[in-house]
Amino acid sequence: MDWEAYEREASAAVAAATGPSDLDDARVRYLGRKSELAQALRGVRDRESGMLLNGIRERLEAAVAEREQRLEDEELDRKLRDEVVDVTLPGEPLPVGHLHPITQVRRIVEDSFLGLGYEIRDDREVETVEFNFDKLAFAPTHSSRSARDTFYFDKTHLLRTETSPSQIHILEEKEPPIYMVSIGRVYRRDAITATRYPIFHQFEGLAVDEGITLADLKGTLLHVMRALYGPERRVRFRTHFFPFTEPSIEPDVSCGICGGAGCRTCKYTGWIEMGGAGVVDPQVFENVGVDSERWSGFAFGCGLERAAQLRHDIPDIRLLWDGDLRVLRQF
Fold first, then answer.
1. In angstroms, rounded to a whole number, what is the distance separating the alpha carbons of residues 19 and 32?
2. CATH numeric code, 102-328
3. pTM over 0.70
4. Which residue in 43, 79, 201, 329 has a CA-CA distance of 20 to 30 Å to 238?
5. pLDDT digits (tens, 9 = 90+) for 193-229
6. Sign of dihedral through CA atoms 138, 143, 147, 148?
7. CATH 3.30.930.10 domain residues, the chain
8. Residue 55 and residue 174: Cα distance in Å, rounded?
9. Dihedral through CA 66, CA 70, CA 72, CA 74, nearest 10?
10. Backbone angles phi, psi at 111, to 5 degrees
11. Can you name the residues that pair with 250 across neighbouring β-strands?
12. Which of 331, 102, 315, 323 minimizes the C-alpha distance to 203?
């Protein structure tokens, strides 16, 4: 075998390669496992032949690597020359996320009350029975104290069932007048339905001052309802009972899904309950050492999920917790 001729032929083939595929064909033909050079190296029995063949292989491998680098440089030069990019043109817009519907509603509520001069609080979610029930004047036999309605850690600690304990915290921290809204997660052993979920967000308000009446409460709630739903939605107030307010009311908003005609979401009543409210019971003031003869106040609590459902006419509240981007992208 004329190995000098073999090397010249292989070097010429490598130098003549005009692209990666041609170069790979030459490499396989002259340096591959089935090439004459590779076969000869397997049968080497003397030192001189081994040195000769290994020298040829090393020179050819170096020639292939050099040619490969040159081809890459030529391709880069071609792209820079032909594929001109105008860097002054605007790029492709990247997809940008947005706030969750619940967070959007929370911002609206915060802005509404900040505009009225209220302060915003964010209190603890793990509460004591004393703050969650006792100081809010819940009767010892009230159904909310049952383990079937409330998530207990032990006999004295639980996941708060509402943000109402914030009322007690702020009444113990400072003297009236007080204008406060507490916003956060609450937990109840509720059945999951189109309008209820065992975990939800609530905004709880408390106003304590001299001469506050039920009319002040209704005006405040109407202001927030208009900010959330617009002037075209109807709002009504029904009498109700809550342990920590007297008199007590429940605000309802007309169902936007059926227009008040009745549907599954509003349980065919045409209205959806927003929460509870009322004038603070004097017993609550006495529990925290506030003079109920001088001071009066009102309190209210509403769900953010319910507010988002009513604002956007969402038929099922569970859609807000599923994390389905097909739903969330609509808001």
1. 18
2. 3.30.930.10
3. no
4. 201
5. 877 889 999 999 999 999 999 999 999 999 998 898 8
6. negative
7. 102-328
8. 92
9. 180
10. -65, -40
11. 238
12. 102
